[in-house]
Amino acid sequence: MPLFGAHVSIAGGLPRAVDRARATRCEAFQIFTKSTGQWRARELPADEIALFRRRVDETGIRPVVAHTSYLINVAAAVPALRSQSMKALGDELDRAEILGLQGLVLHPGSYTSGSEAQGLELIADALGALLRARPDGRTMILLEHTAGQGTNLGHRFEHLREIVDRLDRTPRVGVCIDTCHLLAAGYDLCSEGGYDATFRELDRVVGLERVRVFHLNDSKKPCGSRVDRHEHIGKGCLGLEPFRRLINDARFANHPMLLETPKLDTPASRRRSDADPWDLRNLRILRRLQRV
Fold it and tell me: For the CA atoms of 280, 284, 286, 287, what is the dihedral angle to 10 degrees?
């Protein structure tokens, strides 16, 4: 069985995220470890770290992964931005490590100037430097396959392979697959043949053993749009059948499959520790798609 879950808020402190995950009936979950709109991060108090880890152990909701800030772009050709991005990514990797997280999901980056090849080289060089500086690290970097907006890298499986190859195929780097991004990037999951061809290609180019996490999102935009707009499960251009195939695919049993679908975004809902109603609905739909 897949491990269903969602991205949950850390409002009120990291331990509150575990409470939200439990209320949402998550079997795994994803968080941000800091504000995504700021470069600087507040220092995590030792007691907050300890309580978070204890709550994860008590609830048994794991694995837990974090998603990096969207400000980070280690493919940037501008030295100052790339340096700032590397520092921020290193900080986030350290935060994930101290929290005991399995992985840190990273959008590979955008080649704001220069070429695609140069951007991929910059990404690999940055990740290599960060991993070498942390030889005993256990938290994996999980490269997220992207929708391909603008000059974003990572929307082709070949991009992910290029980065991994440049890192000597280290086991410390895995892959996160987002269903919305796959469709937007031009991988047609909607038919049975398209689904089979997509994962056959992923296996050939990257290797299914690299896939550690899925983001389950429907897409507001059609196949090949290269526009990243998430929609509720079954309400977008994917529909229900691709999700039915994925969650019943024996190759991905025990993989975390996490929602990043829209939430009921009100101040009250952000303050509470109870479940987001949309997350409950989407998870209920996914569970109904499972074959007994």
Answer: 130
| pLDDT value, residue 271 | 56
Helix (H, G, I), strand (E, B) or coil at 49: helix
pLDDT in tens, 9-40: 999 999 999 999 999 999 999 999 999 889 98
For the range 227-230, what are the long-range contacts, defined as Cβ-Cβ under 8 Å and sequence gap of 24 or more?
227/147, 227/149, 227/184, 228/146, 228/147, 228/149, 228/180, 228/181, 228/184, 229/180, 229/184, 230/180, 230/260, 230/261, 230/262
Q: In angstroms, rounded to a whole number, what is the distance separating the alpha carbons of residues 59 and 224?
A: 40
What is the CATH classification number for the domain harbouring 64?
3.20.20.150
> Does residue 157 come out as left (phi exceeding 0), alpha (psi in the -120 to 50 range) or beta?
alpha
Structurally, how many domains does the chain consist of?
Answer: 1
Q: Which helix (H) or strand (E) holds 252?
A: none
User: Average pLDDT for residues 65-89, to the nearest whole number?
Assistant: 96
**Bridge pairing between strands 218-219 and 230-231:** antiparallel
Kind of pairing between the strands at 173-178 and 152-153: unpaired
Helix boundaries (H) for 99-230: 116-132, 157-166, 179-184, 192-205
Q: Say how far apart CA 261 and CA 119 lie, in whole Å.
A: 29
Count CA atoms within 13 Å of residue 170 on its CB side.
20
Q: Which two tokens stand for residue 290?
A: 């499972």
Helix, strand, or coil (residue 258): strand
Element at 71 (helix H, strand E): none
Domain region containing 248: 3-288
